[in-house]
Amino acid sequence: MLQISPAGGVGGKRRDRANMSQQAVNGVQCRGKVLTLDNMNPNVKRVEYAVRGPIVQRAVQIEKELKAGVKKPFTEVIKANIGDAQAMGQKPITFLRQVLALCSYPELLEDKKFPEDAKKRAQRILEACGGNSIGAYSASQGIECIRQDVARYIERRDGGIPSNPDNIYLSTGASDAIVTILKLLVCGEGCDRTGVMISIPQYPLYSAALADLGAVQINYYLDEDNCWSLDVKELRRALSAARQHCNPRVLCIINPGNPTGQVQSRQCIEDVIRFAKEEHLFLMADEVYQDNVYAEGCKFYSFKKVLFEMGPEYSSTVEMASFHSTSKCYMGECGFRGGYMEVINMDPEVKAQLTKLVSVRLCPPIPGQALLDLVVNPPQPDEPSYTTFMKERTAVLATLAEKASLTEQIFNTVPGITCNPVQGAMYTFPRITLPQSAIDKAKEAGQAPDMFYCMRLLEEEGICLVPGSGFGQREGTFHFRMTILPPTEKLKVVLQKICEFHLRFTQEFS
Ligand SMILES: Cc1ncc(COP(=O)(O)O)c(C=O)c1O
């Protein structure tokens, strides 16, 4: 294959000569690659996604080295970099997998091993599928009876506030729905380009999607000294600064938070909604961790519920989309790519555009839709699967709560690590104090200081974390994100190793 090096150089010259001789052979003008790094979409080049960045690439390489027999100070790499529960050993919930098995291979409906309620759900889902098969496409917005079940789930969750299935869009995980809504919102040129407010630290899907779409990212900082809470004064500061160079139209909230694990109070949500209305912003409420609330005194309130309880002045005007997923909570079924969004107060003509846009990609995966149906419509107390389902669900959430508190406790015993309570979600984002000489050394190597720290931790202990710089943080502060997902005994080992490493690292550079 012919290649012309965009950078020229020795390799480039050699390839140029090869091109010329090829031209002579073919007698045609050779113009090299159509698509090069120089002429590709520049927005794509700006995209960064730290959760699967260089640290993870090195972790994969180390795993291969271990397999090949290379001696290391550890025998396995522990990947605590990503919120992937089942990759960390969490067992799937039996009922969910039973119904999915039945949907995938309907002959099993005759099998006596499967409980009747699982069979009933599978039959209902299959009847709603084209040709009674989950191998068929569905309507682009998602299977209708599943959208109805989602709407009923939202109503139950929010104490009876109505939800219209027409406003529900099933999606390929929450990521897909979030990007789709951003796509609708981003437009304009120069100072009129859409600005999108995102929390810092943030979940890097947001910065990546904004880079891809060429939108303006507006950072608002969470308050680390107050348990990563959100202060409307900070939203105002960020908004008025951004108005100088873009057109802020969107406010994104993650609650419970990733990577910071905070749970917003009802009062805070009310303040945010009031702010969005005053400033004429579209609200995006990322609520994928809605069941993951652990800390005493914390409770999940959906933005939709609070919006409607604030009365018609708000509930009939504030435009909003909220997102949920099958990847998190007690399910951890990341690979099935299930999710939904509910849109509220969206202009009907824009909604028609949204429906058109999702139809271009045909439909979200049907197994993911089926799974979502079981999440929003779980076994009921009078059904045979109820007891086991509740036992499994409660056990997963209780273990996560235990690990959240263990993580905070252990990190806070180490001088130089400060860890806020993990009130919810699946992560901790502790602050690390790094010696100046370590910071200088990292800079010499062209690395962010917390990347340097995490890389050393990976090489020395085999623990894979994500540096805080991948999520954004206040200038001069350093953090890392770690999931609390490893099994309890393994998590204890991980925490111990990180603490020991921190002390060693600090000593080495002091
Ligand atoms: C805050 C937040 N939103 C969205 C997602 C995307 O989840 P999925 O696309 O798997 O539903 C994640 C995944 O970690 C997340 O943490």
UniProtKB/TrEMBL annotation:
Pfam families registered for this protein in UniProt: Aminotran_1_2
Intracellular or extracellular location(s): Cytoplasm
GO biological process assignments: L-alanine catabolic process
Domain Aminotransferase class I/classII large, chain residue ranges per copy: 100-498
Secreted as UniProt keyword: no
Main location: cytoplasm
Any one GO molecular function term: L-alanine:2-oxoglutarate aminotransferase activity
Region (Disordered): 1-21
Record field: catalytic activity: L-alanine + 2-oxoglutarate = pyruvate + L-glutamate
InterPro entries found in the cross-reference section: ALAT1/2-like, Aminotransferase_I/II_large, PyrdxlP-dep_Trfase, PyrdxlP-dep_Trfase_major, PyrdxlP-dep_Trfase_small
This protein's GO CC annotations: cytoplasm
Domain of life: Eukaryota
Enzyme Commission identifier(s): 2.6.1.2
CDD domains reported for this sequence: AAT_like (cd00609)
Required cofactor(s): pyridoxal 5'-phosphate
Keywords assigned: Acetylation, Aminotransferase, Cytoplasm, Phosphoprotein, Pyridoxal phosphate, Transferase
Family (UniProt): Belongs to the class-I pyridoxal-phosphate-dependent aminotransferase family. Alanine aminotransferase subfamily.
Assembly information from the UniProt record: Homodimer.
Function statement: Catalyzes the reversible transamination between alanine and 2-oxoglutarate to form pyruvate and glutamate. Participates in cellular nitrogen metabolism and also in liver gluconeogenesis starting with precursors transported from skeletal muscles.
Protein name according to UniProt: Alanine aminotransferase 1
Organism: Mastacembelus armatus (zig-zag eel)
Upper taxonomic lineage: Eukaryota, Metazoa, Chordata, Craniata, Vertebrata
